[in-house]
From TrEMBL:
Function field: Catalyzes the reversible phosphorylation of S-methyl-5'-thioadenosine (MTA) to adenine and 5-methylthioribose-1-phosphate. Involved in the breakdown of MTA, a major by-product of polyamine biosynthesis. Responsible for the first step in the methionine salvage pathway after MTA has been generated from S-adenosylmethionine. Has broad substrate specificity with 6-aminopurine nucleosides as preferred substrates.
Domain Nucleoside phosphorylase residue range list: 41-177, 178-262
Cellular compartments per GO CC: cytosol; nucleus
Subunit structure: Homotrimer.
Site (described: Important for substrate specificity): 185, 240
InterPro entries in the cross-refs: MTAP, Nucleoside_phosphorylase_d, Nucleoside_phosphorylase_sf, Purine_phosphorylase-2_CS
Protein's cellular compartments: Cytoplasm; Nucleus
Keyword set, alphabetical order: Cytoplasm, Glycosyltransferase, Membrane, Nucleus, Purine salvage, Transferase, Transmembrane, Transmembrane helix
Stated name of the protein: S-methyl-5'-thioadenosine phosphorylase
Binding annotation for phosphate: 48, 90-91, 123-124, 204
């Protein structure tokens, strides 16, 4: 489980897999691969240190605007093994945007308008469990949101926004077919989140996943554990230097997952899933009566 707040984002994580086991699962015989009957385009939102544009072939850049303002940076268009992809650095390519100031609305809107059907996002996280070690990869399954200041809907009542109010279901926030900050937690908070059943903690999953659901996009989050937060009373608490060191040593794991998963995703039939997500997004909007 992930929890998100000014002290960080926390989400429940059901799948705890190292890079090797994740790739084995994707390549295993249990995966049913068939040609998709709909056009697939993968949006990639790269988190801190996990937004390497070199994974894309034939890259071009496009600066766009949205009803919510400008996204975090340029959209980088390209391909991964002949699959169309769009990469966006969540915090900007120079990492100048702190989690609470990311324009999540603009990011999601821009990727949807670019034609993305799926979002595969990467994020760094702190581990709240002994068995999730720094460098491990986690697929986030649920979240607990503790933020208070972030816009969490595309239907925000502004003149340039879509009309109506969205009551989007969030029982299953992440696509099960893919599986506020900037401060770190206090020790009391870290221990509390462990008691709540949370497995990892980060700063950016919410509202990104909520907005993706409103936009009718298939969303999956690949989280890299970089530290043990600060719940271990007799060990050093999380600090930026250690987080950056772990990310640098293990960033290739996230890239390897994307390079392996995206071609497989493109070969699956997503027609029903995409239709279901779009129908849910549309039916969740209550329009004003005239």
């Amino acid at each position: 489980m992930v929890s998100d707040g000014c002290s960080g984002l926390y989400s429940v994580t059901v799948f705890i897999l190292l890079i090797s086991s994740y790739i084995f699962t994707l390549a295993g015989k249990n995966i049913v691969v068939m040609a998709s009957t709909v056009s697939i385009k993968i949006g990639i939102i790269g988190g801190s240190g996990l937004d390497d544009p070199d994974i894309l072939e034939g890259r071009t850049e496009r600066y766009v605007d949205t009803p919510y303002g400008k996204p975090s940076d340029a959209l980088i268009l390209g391909r991964i093994k002949n699959v169309e992809c769009v990469l966006l650095a969540r915090h900007g390519r120079q990492h100048t945007i702190m989690p609470s100031n990311v324009n999540y609305q603009a990011n999601i809107w821009a990727l949807r308008e670019e034609g993305c059907t799926h979002l595969l996002v990467t994020t760094a996280c702190g581990s709240l469990r002994e068995e999730i070690q720094p460098g491990d990869i986690v697929l986030i399954d649920q979240f607990i949101d503790r933020t208070t200041k972030r816009a969490q809907t595309l239907y925000d009542g502004q003149p340039s926004s879509p009309p109506g109010v969205s009551h989007i279901p969030m029982a299953e926030p992440f696509c099960n077919r893919t599986r506020e900050g900037p401060r770190f937690s206090s020790r009391a908070e870290s221990l509390m989140f462990r008691q709540w059943g949370a497995d990892v903690i980060n700063m950016s999953t919410v509202p990104e996943v909520v907005l993706a659901k409103e936009a009718g996009l298939c969303y999956a989050s690949i989280a890299m554990a970089t530290d043990y937060d600060c719940w271990k009373e007799h060990e050093e608490a999380v600090c930026v230097d250690n987080v950056l060191k772990t990310m640098k040593e293990n960033a290739n794991k996230a890239s390897s997952i994307l390079l392996t998963a995206i071609p497989l995703i493109s070969q699956m039939d997503w027609a029903h899933t995409i239709k279901t997500l779009k129908t849910m997004a549309q039916s969740s909007v209550m329009l004003p009566k005239h």
